[in-house]
C-alpha cells in the first residue's frame, strides 16, 4: 500500500510518498516540493503544480492520496491562494482515479504527537521516528506532507 | 476577438462567451453553467468543472479568458471552496495558452453600471443592454460571467 501526502501551497507545495508494509511499518519512498520564485503569476504556479504532481503520481503510482485540509482563521488572502493550489492537487488525484483522504492540521498534530497543539517541530520529529530516519526530511513542507501520509496510515489502523 | 468570462463557484460555475466586433459592438456567443447537485464531493465537482471548461474552450476557442476575483470578507469557508474551483478554471485557461484577466466584483459593478455598490440585478440588466438582448441571460451565474467578459472589453477600450 502506497500513500502520497500533499501539503498544499502556491509558492511551495510539499509532497511525500510512503509505503506501508504488511507488518505495519512505514517506509519513505520519496519526498520533495514544487516551488516557484516569489512574484510568479498564479496561473504559472498552478500549471507547474499540475504538471509536477502528475509526474509524481505517474512515477510513484500511489494507491491513495492524502491532502491536508485548510484551516485559516487569520489570513483569508493566504487561504484563498492556497485553496487554488489545493483544487489543482485534488483534480490531479481525481483524474488518476485515486481515493482522496483529507485531514485538518489539528487531526495531523493530534495523530502524530497525541497533542492537537503540538509544535511543527514535534510533528516533524515524529515523521523522522515513524520512518526510521536519522534526520527530519527537508524542507519543512515535504516533512509536513509525509506527516499527512503517515496520519492516514495511523487512522487506517485505528479503524 | 472572442472573450470567455468565468464566474467561479463549486456548486455552480457560470461561463459566458462574447465576440467583440470591429465596431466595438459586443455579441453573445454562448453562456451557461456547470452545476452539480448539493452534497456532491468536491473532487467530483472539480473534475466536472475541468472537463466542462475544457469542452467550452475547445468549442468556442476564446482569445482571452476573464475570471472574476474572489472577495469574501464574511465567509472564509465559502471563499476557500470557491477558490478550489477558481484554481481549476485558471489551470484550464493556462493549459490552453490563453491570456487571463481578473477583475474584482467591485470593478465589474463599477465598469458595468458606473457604481461600485450596484445591485446584482442592475449589472445583469446592463449585460442585457450591452448584448442587445430582449431578456437577461439565465441563470444568474451565466449573466455574471458575461458581465466579467464585457467588463474586460470595456476596460480594453479605456486603455
Q: Can you give a write-up of this model?
A:
Helices cover 50% and strands 22% of the residues of chain A. The first copy, chain A, has helices spanning 42-60, 76-95, 105-113, 120-131, 140-158; strands spanning 2-7, 12-20, 26-35, 64-68, 99-103. Chain A has a 5-stranded mixed β-sheet. In chain A, a hairpin with a 4-residue loop joins strand 1 (2-7) and strand 2 (12-20). Chain A starts with a strand and ends with a helix. The model of chain A has no long low-confidence stretch (mean pLDDT 94).
Q: What's the rounded overall pLDDT mean of chain A? A: 94
The portion of residues forming beta strands of chain A comes to 15-25%
Strand order of the largest sheet of chain A: 3-2-1-4-5
Largest interface: A-B, 25 and 25 residues
Distance between the termini of chain A: 16 Å
Derived from helix and strand composition plus strand pairing, the structural class of chain A reads: alpha/beta
Number of strands of chain A: 5
Alpha-carbon Rg of chain A, integer: 15 Å
Low-confidence stretches of chain A: none
How would a textbook summarize the main sheet of chain A?
Answer: 5 strands, mixed
Question: Quaternary arrangement of the chains shown?
Answer: homodimer
- Contiguous helical run count of chain A: 5
Name the overall outline of chain A: globular
Helices and strands, with pairings:
The structure is a homodimer of 159-residue chains.
Chain A: E1 2-7, E2 12-20, E3 26-35, H1 42-60, E4 64-68, H2 76-95, E5 99-103, H3 105-113, H4 120-131, H5 140-158
Parallel strand pairs in A: 1-4, 4-5
Antiparallel strand pairs in A: 1-2, 2-3
Amino acid at each position: 500500500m502506497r500513500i502520497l501526502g500533499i501539503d498544499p501551497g502556491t509558492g511551495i507545495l510539499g509532497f511525500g510518498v510512503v509505503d506501508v508494509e504488511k507488518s505495519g511499518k512505514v517506509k519513505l519512498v520519496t519526498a520533495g516540493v514544487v516551488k516557484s520564485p516569489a512574484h510568479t503569476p498564479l496561473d504559472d504556479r498552478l500549471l507547474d503544480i499540475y504538471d509536477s504532481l502528475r509526474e509524481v503520481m505517474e512515477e510513484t503510482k500511489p494507491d491513495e492520496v492524502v491532502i491536508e485540509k485548510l484551516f485559516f482563521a487569520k489570513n483569508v488572502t493566504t487561504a484563498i491562494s492556497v485553496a487554488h493550489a489545493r483544487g489543482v492537487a485534488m483534480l490531479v488525484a481525481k483524474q488518476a482515479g485515486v481515493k482522496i483522504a483529507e485531514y485538518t492540521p489539528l487531526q495531523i498534530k493530534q495523530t502524530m504527537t497525541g497533542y492537537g497543539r503540538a509544535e511543527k517541530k514535534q510533528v516533524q520529529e515524529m515523521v523522522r521516528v515513524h520512518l526510521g530516519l536519522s534526520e527530519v526530511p527537508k524542507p519543512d513542507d515535504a516533512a509536513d506532507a509525509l506527516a499527512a501520509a503517515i496520519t492516514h496510515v495511523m487512522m487506517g489502523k485505528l479503524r
